[in-house]
Amino acid sequence: QELRPKSLDIKQEELGDMVEKEMASTSEAIEDAVRRIEEMMSQARNESSGVKLEVNERILNSCTDLMKAIRLLVTTSTNLQKEIVESGRGAATTQEFYAKNSRWTEGLISASKAVGWGATQLVEAADRVVLHTGKYEELIVCSHEIAASTAQLVAASKVKAEKSSRNLARLQECSRNVNEMAANVVASTKSGQEQIEEKDTMDFSGMSLIKLKKEEMETQVKVLELEKRLEGERVRLGELRKQHYVLAGGCEDTPEDGEARPAPAPRRGILKKPPIAQKP
């Protein structure tokens, strides 16, 4: 008992209540997110027009579809958890089952929190983008976070579920749907960003040769500065992920040996620096 990870400062008998509360809280957060998106849609139609309105509507529609997919995922996950408890508790009570499988329960609670948090962050990022106070990249990152937390919830549920469970099959299907909707948010965000940036096309036709040369040199300096900053941020991201996996590793459970292992670090995309044109 002393060697068990103290990841949650609650009594074992309270774990069952925590699961129900977290799932209910997640559902409530998603419902609130859907309402906020509808409000943003109405506000965008009143305050914007043309290309900006088209971009905002496309992004918010994709966010709405994602929230609906997450809502179905949470509902299906709740049904699967009930099935797992009913089939595995025997003569024990629900609270005793959760207490006996406390590490699995803690993983379930953590996954549920991650899904709800991701949905909230996505809506806040969308709100800032519509108000032109945020960055499109924030929406993309939030979409990736939701896909990751969805995989975490499915993995936590799959540990105790029967392979032939219909609810498990439905949950996996919901997970694929969430990933597809998250990819749609990323696609609509990127296309919207490009569409907005195309409005501000760079016109250098009126510049003199000296002015062009100066602008070219200043841009090269900025490129070098950004490349150096990008490399530093990559190192920082790697260290943050290492620490995240160390802390999260104590809460994870596996169906085979029961040992906690950190999740594998996601592979970085291969980003090649564009060659700088050489002067003759």
Automatic annotation (TrEMBL):
<feature type="region of interest" description="Disordered">
    <location>
        <begin position="250"/>
        <end position="280"/>
    </location>
</feature>
<dbReference type="GO" id="GO:0032051">
    <property type="term" value="F:clathrin light chain binding"/>
</dbReference>
<dbReference type="GO" id="GO:0080025">
    <property type="term" value="F:phosphatidylinositol-3,5-bisphosphate binding"/>
</dbReference>
<dbReference type="GO" id="GO:0006897">
    <property type="term" value="P:endocytosis"/>
</dbReference>
<dbReference type="GO" id="GO:0030864">
    <property type="term" value="C:cortical actin cytoskeleton"/>
</dbReference>
<dbReference type="Pfam" id="PF01608">
    <property type="entry name" value="I_LWEQ"/>
</dbReference>
<feature type="domain" description="I/LWEQ">
    <location>
        <begin position="7"/>
        <end position="248"/>
    </location>
</feature>
<dbReference type="GO" id="GO:0043325">
    <property type="term" value="F:phosphatidylinositol-3,4-bisphosphate binding"/>
</dbReference>
<dbReference type="GO" id="GO:0035615">
    <property type="term" value="F:clathrin adaptor activity"/>
</dbReference>
<dbReference type="InterPro" id="IPR035964">
    <property type="entry name" value="I/LWEQ_dom_sf"/>
</dbReference>
<dbReference type="InterPro" id="IPR002558">
    <property type="entry name" value="ILWEQ_dom"/>
</dbReference>
<dbReference type="GO" id="GO:0051015">
    <property type="term" value="F:actin filament binding"/>
</dbReference>
<keyword id="KW-0175">Coiled coil</keyword>
<dbReference type="GO" id="GO:0048268">
    <property type="term" value="P:clathrin coat assembly"/>
</dbReference>
<keyword id="KW-0963">Cytoplasm</keyword>
<protein>
    <submittedName>
        <fullName>HIP1R protein</fullName>
    </submittedName>
</protein>
<dbReference type="GO" id="GO:0007015">
    <property type="term" value="P:actin filament organization"/>
</dbReference>
<dbReference type="GO" id="GO:0030136">
    <property type="term" value="C:clathrin-coated vesicle"/>
</dbReference>
<feature type="coiled-coil region">
    <location>
        <begin position="207"/>
        <end position="243"/>
    </location>
</feature>
<dbReference type="InterPro" id="IPR030224">
    <property type="entry name" value="Sla2_fam"/>
</dbReference>
